[in-house]
Amino acid sequence: MTLGMYLINSRLCKRRIGARLRMRCGARPNSPCGLKQWPAPHRILSPSPQKIGRLHSAINSTCKAGRMTAVFIDRDGTMGGGYDMEFPWMYAPYPGTREAFALLNSNGFFPIIFTNQSCIARGKDNGYDFAAEFREIGAYDWFICPHDAGDGCNCRKPKTGLLEQAQAKYGLDLSSCFVIGDRWSDMLAGGLCGCRLILVMTGRGQESLGIDRARWGGYSPDWVAPDILDAARWICRHKDNNTKPA
Hints:
This protein is α/β, with parallel strands linked by helices. The chain has a single domain (44-237), classed as 3-Layer(aba) Sandwich (Rossmann fold). Helix content is 37%, strand content 11%. A six-stranded parallel β-sheet has the order 3-2-1-4-5-6, with helices on both faces. The longest helix is centred in the N-terminal third of the chain and has 23 residues, at 3-25. Residues 1-47 and 59-65 have low confidence and may be disordered.
């Protein structure tokens, strides 16, 4: 076989493998939270097939050994942008957000984004590629609620569906995981699942400690950070003692 024929055959093989992966990992008729109608293609809410393939072996070995500690991170108001953005492309990361993700990754944590994005249900996302954004920032995985407040799903924070999806996927012990967020709904979702809570003062952090404090009054933050980078540094300082006290 000539070199040229070998390269052609290799490319055809890669295309066939890629097509099979896309068929297996493409759009699904039902949403992750079990609603009958799914307003957006499922593929925009999950990592690419290529990323799944690269990480599959590492994920299995890590979870079996019980070593996976996830850090769940809210997007709007925590990572960047603002809490009142109408369109997802209005988002821009805060200074220090990229460094925070790099710090968590380099210290053996698994940063996972969990975010409400009702812009999808409202048709205001215009096919925005959340997956590309989250891959570029350094997220290990991401879980998105695409529903509006009145849709009756179980994944819109403060409900715990997004965290439970991650727990089911990776076999997590949520009591050893962290939640970083700016809103009372982030804190309540994490508290209900037994996670350690870090409130950031960006976004609606001040409101969460003020007028919204009673809405998650049964829980207290383990740390109040000025921003996501300080939150990541606090987690890394406490990585050898990452189980929530009884």
